[in-house]
Automatic annotation (TrEMBL):
Domain ZSWIM3 N-terminal: 42-148
Pfam families from the UniProt entry: ZSWIM3_N (PF21599)
Organism per entry: Elysia marginata
Coiled coil: none
Name under which the protein is recorded: Expressed conserved protein
Length: 278
């Protein structure tokens, strides 16, 4: 015969006593240490932002969820609080939260780079002054019920916050290759960057990379006057510059150009030289 020992909600079998009926032995958890299911309730506080992040990471690993910072306001003017608490208020949302973008025109494909499905799970932190005068980060309110997506490790850690891929030269050569199969490419990106892409994402990425490889045509109107004309050879420069250098022209010391100083007695002489009238 066996009896059941309950440890914080987990049933564990233990050997029954030699005599007597089976009993249910209940071990009460320490009330001062919240369990994972009791985390992030209103009024719970943290003495530092680092402490909150450590608790959040542990909660995410144990519950197969993933939160990202949605909005926040940093603390100012108090260096000690800025370093310890960081934020005046901060909101963390499920990475698949917010409303999914839907274009008004059904023919327009949405520019949706993430997997937003409108999950309503969130945690809101705010600055709180305790009766002792110390400041802490307090849970103002929260909703830990995830909806519109499965709560699994695959969904939490393999589905990225966004589907943008960091493409280096090695990955680029594989993607633009004609022999590479789409399914194989998706597996490579998933293994290399832990990002699950859609087939449409891969198509757009390949199209963009191939377009970048093609040189942009240079139209005659975009060519500068310097590129249209060929530069003088050294021997040609000597022959063509010699008459100018003997006629008060000189080579500019800071650039490849010629200069000459003109002296005028009045502005009318300048107009006559430049525009042909006085």
């Amino acid at each position: 015969m066996e009896v059941s020992l309950q440890l914080d909600g987990l049933d564990m079998p233990v050997a029954a006593a030699a005599t007597g009926e089976a009993d249910l032995i209940k071990v009460e958890p320490d009330a001062s240490v919240p369990s994972l299911g009791q985390r992030f309730q209103k009024g719970e506080f943290y003495t530092s932002f680092e402490e909150f992040i450590g608790t959040l990471q542990h909660y995410q690993e144990q519950n197969n969820v993933f939160f990202v910072r949605d909005s926040a306001e940093r603390l100012k003017f108090d260096e000690e609080l800025m370093e310890r608490l960081v934020y005046k208020y901060c909101v963390f949302m499920c990475k698949q939260g917010r409303r999914k973008y839907k274009p008004t025109n059904p023919k327009i494909r949405p520019n949706q780079s993430s997997f937003k499905v409108g999950c309503k799970a969130f945690i809101r932190l705010g600055l709180k002054k305790q009766v002792t005068g110390d400041y802490v980060l307090e849970i103002k309110n929260s909703n830990l019920e995830h909806n519109n997506h499965p709560v699994t490790a695959e969904n939490a850690y393999k589905y990225p916050e966004n589907r943008r891929v960091n493409v280096d030269e090695k990955l680029k050569s594989v993607i633009v290759s004609q022999e590479a199969k789409p399914k194989h490419l998706l597996e490579i990106i998933k293994k290399d960057q832990a990002k699950t892409l859609l087939s449409r994402d891969l198509y757009n990425l390949k199209r963009k990379l191939r377009k970048d490889e093609k040189p942009n045509p240079v139209f005659p109107s975009q060519q500068s006057a310097a590129t249209k004309q060929s530069l003088l050879k050294p021997e040609e420069r000597v022959v063509m510059l010699e008459p100018l250098l003997h006629n008060s022209w000189s080579v500019c010391p800071d650039r490849d150009a010629l200069q000459k100083e003109f002296m005028f007695s009045n502005f009318s002489e300048v107009q006559l030289l430049l525009f042909g009238f006085s």
